[in-house]
Amino acid sequence: MSQNGFVTTSDLRARFCAAMSRMYRNEVPAYATLVELVGDINAARLERDPALASELTATDGVERISAERHGAIRLGTAGELATMRRIFAVMGMYPVGYYDLTAAGIPVHSTAFRPIDPTALAANPFRVFTSLLRLDLIADADLRAEAEAILAQRRIFTDEALQLLEQAEREGGLGEGHAAAFIAAVLETFRWHPRACVDRETYRRLHDAHRLIADVVSFRGPHINHLTPRTLDIDAAQAAMPERGITPKAVVEGPPQRRCPILLRQTSFKALEEPVAFPDGQGDVAEGHHTARFGEIEQRGAALTPKGRARYDELLAAARAGVTPAADGSNAQTYMDHLEHTFADFPDDHATLRAEGLAYFHYSLTEDGEAAAATGGVEIEGGVDDLIDRGLVRFDPIVYEDFLPVSAAGIFQSNLGDGAGPAVTAAANRAAFEAALGATPADEFALYAEREATSIGNCQDRLQPVARQIGSA
User: Is residue 404 domain-shared with residue 294, that is, in the same domain?
Assistant: First the structure.
């Protein structure tokens, strides 16, 4: 509770994350099994790897592993996106990054709502990958107009959610009772609705245009389509999923297995085929099914600098140009072997990643550094490298908090299946997305660079007055 009597944004976010997880576990029991599996793997990994536990304590805090979640939601209109931005802001989540998934044949563009401040991230890092359907990519003009009309009529937020949102914005927060009501009301937007808002024939035409279009347009709410626990060993999780009765996707998306993980690796179980009732316009319903919701696992590594990310993107493109992973998994091992071979020259130790400016790091004082700070500092002739060489400062990778377009598209495609519909090709339209959002997403690279610089400054301040030149290295 904050000093003004409002529930803090981090507490709101944590409560919302927990409520979302409970709801999704009830709606998708396989997700509950997935969470249990990840918890077991994480506990085992920390027990056998004290160095990793120490690294996490220095950067994230081991406690945040169990709380690590992200979800994904797909919206249909600019108004829905703008209101969702306001709702997430009440929970301390702000848009970061712009992702163009049309480059991978998916008719959406996206951002990620997440905490930005390191303290808020440490308290609860929940994030939601939020996509906006690009209706302009529906080739059939009549179907496009019909989809626009359907979306214009739906209301995905309850009256209570909107009233409490306006109250939070007007008063600067929510007290205990209103906070609980706000979370419950907002959760309704993310709930699964097994009754479609279109008839079966309309659904079929939307489905034929693209399965994701049918998923967005055909229902009265943008159900959460997946939640994601964080694992410390995604390869172990991938191998163990069948033992728990879960069928994983064919390949792990992202970089190959490494000693020092980078960016983001993801896997999932196949989307569920769920019964759906389609109204027939005569007061009756026709039975059918829809496939959209699944469970995902993520493993997060070091955030890469623009230089590191450019090298990663280049190598990933080269790997996929050589071997494209098949949806049925028939060439999964061939692809993974080729991916590992392609990335063989990408440095796989933190010292080299730092020396070559490929990744961002958090700097902190060692025990000797703490002792030096306690006695008034030390004489330093060099910069941060000198402090590291003398054992006064340590560096640990800053965890990547964002997403990868190719990986997101790979997860989407594996769950949409081979019959997803014709691939779309279009130029990115960031200006249109930002206009719909009503804001400019933050630059993720700038956020990581600021965190790194702040950690250097903190070391500088602790070793004052004689270490001022630390930031000049």
Answer: yes
